[in-house]
Recover the amino acids of this structure.
């Protein structure tokens, strides 16, 4: 008995038609990428950052903080699942599905050995090209965040404090938190 042939995944629709398998599927400029379940340390850091972002945006009902799994469509052949992201939403008309989110204001990826080259390379270029205002690459081993904007050819390196200006208002995150270690 032979296995049925798997159709290649080259479109977002192909990807969304895959059976649910508990893994994270992304389409990066037409390249299907599957990422396993994140490690415990990754999720601990994600939890700390999520809490900091919720606190920083507490008085901003127009800002929403989410974590993946999420299917954010950034182009006809690109659907990403950033670890964390912040987007603007009209409080009177909240989004009902992922296409309603649009382009996030901030996308955040927490590095792991298997994702670091992609997060710093292809995904960074995709996020910059999409016009995401800030892309934060969290490096747990170096204990720093690389902050990228669409025009950057090199990141800003932050190792204690991150001040994010949105609409001229600073939102400050102190991210040297021992719980994220």
């Amino acid at each position: 008995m032979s296995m049925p042939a798997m159709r290649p995944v080259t479109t977002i629709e192909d990807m969304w038609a895959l059976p649910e398998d508990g893994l994270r599927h992304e389409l990066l400029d037409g390249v299907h990428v599957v990422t396993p379940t994140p490690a415990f340390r990754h999720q601990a850091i994600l939890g700390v950052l999520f809490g900091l972002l919720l606190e920083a945006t507490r008085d901003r009902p127009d800002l929403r903080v989410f974590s993946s799994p999420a299917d954010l469509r950034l182009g006809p052949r690109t659907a990403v699942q950033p670890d964390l992201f912040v987007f603007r939403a009209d409080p009177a008309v909240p989004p009902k599905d992922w296409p309603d989110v649009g382009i996030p204001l901030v996308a955040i990826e927490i590095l792991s050995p298997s994702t670091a080259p992609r997060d710093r390379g292809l995904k960074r270029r995709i996020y910059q090209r999409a016009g995401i205002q800030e892309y934060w690459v969290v490096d747990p081993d170096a204990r720093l965040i690389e902050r990228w904007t669409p025009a950057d050819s090199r990141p800003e390196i932050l190792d204690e404090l991150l001040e994010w200006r949105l609409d001229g208002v600073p939102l400050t995150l102190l991210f040297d938190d021992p719980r994220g270690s």
Observations:
- The chain has one domain: 38-180.
- The first strand starts at residue 24 and ends at 28.
- Residues 1-5, 177-181 have pLDDT under 50 and may be disordered.
